[in-house]
Amino acid sequence: MTGQKAPTALGTEKIGKLLMQYAVPAIIAMTASSLYNMVDSIFIGHGVGTMAISGLALTFPLMNLAAAFGSLVGVGASTLVSVKLGQKDYDTAQRILGNVLVLNIILGLAVTVVTLIFLDPILYFFGGSDETVKYAREYMQIILLGNVITHLYLGLNAVLRSSGHPQKAMYATIATVIINTILDPVFIYGFGWGIRGAAIATIIAQIISLMWQFKIFSNKDELLHFHRGIFRLRRKIVLDSLAIGMSPFLMNLAACFIVIVINQGLKRYGGDLSIGAFGIVNRLVFIFVMIVMGLNQGMQPIAGYNFGAQQYARVSRVLKLTIIFATVVTTTGFLMGMLVPDLVVSIFTSDEELIALAARGLRIVVMFFPIIGFQMVASNFFQSIGMASKAIFLSLTRQMLFLLPALIILPRFFGTAGVWYSMPVSDLLASLVALVMLVSQFRKFRKAEQQKAV
């Protein structure tokens, strides 16, 4: 039974081979998920219009908020599953699976109800105008109605990856992208549903993948599978999952808040079109960020398992390799943004003014991109080994400690350019903080290895 053999390989197999085995499916899955956000933007940009792109950009903070609650449960529980499998505690790992399901349903419903009630005021607060809010509302109403589906799909995929099935997790994500890409033009153009059609396509794609995940976890031959007795919420599992998941939750929450501040700044100094330009830049940069997140997801079970088994040399090795790969990825993004910004931006729109605004913004945003991969890996690493407080601190330094003050101060002197320049400035400062913390942790690992040798 391959499902039962996989976890032990995390402690014995070559680190490079393991990282490829776990990271490649996660990278493909993460790239695919960022592509289906892009697909929505491209079809909406060409099929509905320029203002619809700005309307879609208004929904980013809300989408981040939904992702924040999804990661609160999914990432925390999947890290816990890795550690428990490393400790051979299969009974607790089973209960974690059951708790993921119940928690996601509760959180998903709560977010849907609260957000739907206050949707219009929220969108105006996010920098919307009468011109753009109508598009954002149409899109978000559908997305929110399917929010429980999204939570379950993301949560179960995280557990699937951690329990030795990275490829199946990848297939689930790729399936959603392909189905979404096929349904988008049918619903937007064919049925004439506009921006609402893009949202319906997204939810239907997730429903189909969720049904497949249920089928996998209903298989009694799997190491982790649904059965009676695992669905009752356990206080310790819930609190441990939420504690570990708090880092990505706060990171997404901060991202949500930051995008609101960015949108408000762009609205004030540049108008609706500037928000649309940021929407395009965000989609493009997001691809490279998602690839690094895929690398992080590949690293997570390996680092978690070996940390649980006290094999610190292996933990250090997987971290170093992940940093190298992440730096290659973000440097590629830097080169794209510097050399061909107009070309990549024009994928989303044929509006000359919007292309010029977005191309200028992209060039600024990727200025320090080669080092941001390192900062992302460092933050995720602490989360992977269960050091929640360090992970939370690192997650928030870029967003709240550096980016927020920059967004408040720089636009007062430089207008719209100040909003754009805030992003690379905070990238640079946050990376320096991550370097200091990581060097300190490495010294502790080395000390622990030396004591083990004695």
TrEMBL record:
<dbReference type="InterPro" id="IPR048279">
    <property type="entry name" value="MdtK-like"/>
</dbReference>
<feature type="transmembrane region" description="Helical">
    <location>
        <begin position="171"/>
        <end position="192"/>
    </location>
</feature>
<feature type="transmembrane region" description="Helical">
    <location>
        <begin position="198"/>
        <end position="217"/>
    </location>
</feature>
<feature type="transmembrane region" description="Helical">
    <location>
        <begin position="237"/>
        <end position="262"/>
    </location>
</feature>
<dbReference type="Pfam" id="PF01554">
    <property type="entry name" value="MatE"/>
</dbReference>
<feature type="transmembrane region" description="Helical">
    <location>
        <begin position="96"/>
        <end position="119"/>
    </location>
</feature>
<dbReference type="GO" id="GO:0005886">
    <property type="term" value="C:plasma membrane"/>
</dbReference>
<keyword id="KW-1133">Transmembrane helix</keyword>
<keyword id="KW-0813">Transport</keyword>
<dbReference type="InterPro" id="IPR002528">
    <property type="entry name" value="MATE_fam"/>
</dbReference>
<protein>
    <recommendedName>
        <fullName>Multidrug export protein MepA</fullName>
    </recommendedName>
</protein>
<dbReference type="GO" id="GO:0046677">
    <property type="term" value="P:response to antibiotic"/>
</dbReference>
<feature type="transmembrane region" description="Helical">
    <location>
        <begin position="274"/>
        <end position="297"/>
    </location>
</feature>
<feature type="transmembrane region" description="Helical">
    <location>
        <begin position="51"/>
        <end position="75"/>
    </location>
</feature>
<feature type="transmembrane region" description="Helical">
    <location>
        <begin position="318"/>
        <end position="340"/>
    </location>
</feature>
<comment type="similarity">
    <text>Belongs to the multi antimicrobial extrusion (MATE) (TC 2.A.66.1) family. MepA subfamily.</text>
</comment>
<feature type="transmembrane region" description="Helical">
    <location>
        <begin position="360"/>
        <end position="379"/>
    </location>
</feature>
<feature type="transmembrane region" description="Helical">
    <location>
        <begin position="139"/>
        <end position="159"/>
    </location>
</feature>
<feature type="transmembrane region" description="Helical">
    <location>
        <begin position="391"/>
        <end position="414"/>
    </location>
</feature>
<keyword id="KW-0472">Membrane</keyword>
<keyword id="KW-0812">Transmembrane</keyword>
<feature type="transmembrane region" description="Helical">
    <location>
        <begin position="420"/>
        <end position="439"/>
    </location>
</feature>
<keyword id="KW-0046">Antibiotic resistance</keyword>
<keyword id="KW-1003">Cell membrane</keyword>
<dbReference type="GO" id="GO:0042910">
    <property type="term" value="F:xenobiotic transmembrane transporter activity"/>
</dbReference>
<dbReference type="GO" id="GO:0015297">
    <property type="term" value="F:antiporter activity"/>
</dbReference>
<dbReference type="InterPro" id="IPR045070">
    <property type="entry name" value="MATE_MepA-like"/>
</dbReference>
<dbReference type="InterPro" id="IPR051327">
    <property type="entry name" value="MATE_MepA_subfamily"/>
</dbReference>
<feature type="transmembrane region" description="Helical">
    <location>
        <begin position="20"/>
        <end position="39"/>
    </location>
</feature>
